[in-house]
UniProtKB/TrEMBL annotation:
Protein encoded by which gene: Gjb5
Annotated function: One gap junction consists of a cluster of closely packed pairs of transmembrane channels, the connexons, through which materials of low MW diffuse from one cell to a neighboring cell.
UniProt record similarity statement: Belongs to the connexin family.
Cellular compartment(s): Cell junction, Gap junction; Cell membrane
Protein name according to UniProt: Gap junction protein
Subunit details: A connexon is composed of a hexamer of connexins.
Lineage: Eukaryota, Metazoa, Chordata, Craniata, Vertebrata
Organism: Nothoprocta pentlandii
GO terms of molecular function: gap junction channel activity
Length: 211
């Protein structure tokens, strides 16, 4: 995936954001997207290959891995980052639409006011688009925090998991590759997601208060 293009689009939203929105965007780009691209993908690159079970029964390791890792952390985080940033792109599209509309007005001799001022001073549809984008971003992060908690209790990976699913001949011990390092990255991503939720809600309260 071209994360550079993704980052460039997000940076274009920065000039239309409030101070809280700029902090949120910096947090997403530096502490979530950059950490994901530079480090997290490499940490989970060997999760299936180095998932070892103390049995040679064909298919046992694959079944146990699929049971304990129904969805990879990396794929969940990628989907989370895409969904949580889509509302910002919608705001950018709305602003571009209103700018084009203003340009058509000026071309027709109407010196209409510019319609892409500070988000806290916006009125009408753009104000609602921005506010709903904040609520959606917070809801996406909360939803993924819940999904991670359901899949991986307390967001933690054990060192050893016991599996007795067919075709395993009996209860076998399976060992996860580098669980401590993965738990540290998971905790980091969970904390940054929580901070982003707080920032989105604070910015929404700020916009409503300025309204």
């Amino acid at each position: 995936m071209n994360w550079g293009l993704f980052e460039g689009l997000l940076s274009g939203v920065n000039k239309y954001s409030t101070a809280f929105g700029r902090v949120w965007l910096s947090l997403v780009l530096i502490f979530r997207l950059l950490v994901y691209v530079v480090a997290a993908e490499r940490v989970w690159s060997d999760d299936h290959k180095d998932f070892d079970c103390n049995t040679r029964q064909p298919g046992c390791s694959n079944v146990c891995y699929d049971h304990f890792f129904p969805v990879s952390h990396i794929r969940l985080w990628a989907l989370q980052l895409i969904l949580v940033t889509c509302p910002s792109l919608l705001v950018l599209m709305h602003v571009a639409y209103r700018e084009a509309k203003a340009q058509r007005r000026r071309a027709n001799g109407d010196d209409g006011r510019r319609v892409h001022l500070e988000p806290g001073k916006k009125r009408g549809g753009l104000w609602w688009t921005y506010l709903l984008s904040l609520v959606f971003k917070a809801a996406v992060d909360v939803a993924f925090l819940y999904i991670f908690h359901r899949f991986y209790r307390n967001y933690a990976l054990p060192r050893v998991v016991k599996c007795e699913l067919p075709p395993c001949p009996n209860v076998v011990d399976c060992f996860i590759s580098r669980p401590t390092e993965k738990n540290i990255f998971t905790l980091f991503m969970v904390v940054t997601a929580c901070v982003c939720v707080v920032l989105s809600l604070v910015e929404a309260a700020y916009l409503v208060g300025k309204r």
